[in-house]
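Please describe our next protein:
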Amino acid sequence: MGVYIKDMQMPEDCFSCPLKEEGFCNITNAYAAQIYERNSDCPLIELPEHHGRLIDENEVRIVMNWLLTQPQRPTWNDTYNAIQEMNSVIEAEGMDE
């Protein structure tokens, strides 16, 4: 399982990372030796600056499979509405929803 830290900026290097303490990474428990770059095993992943809400692909597959089993073929609106009703994993940021 991962953790999302809202409004945290991607650190440019281990030295400026707020997740290190006394020279050690609190995520990997490794020595944060890199002053001008991030360690190669850094698990942080940067999200695009402006992104829509992020949903679970598995949930999309389940709903799409269910729609396809319905007696009446689903319309584009049915599909759109089903996606709109899905739970967000991460809400949209930096853009009008």
Summary: The chain has two domains: 1-43, 54-90.
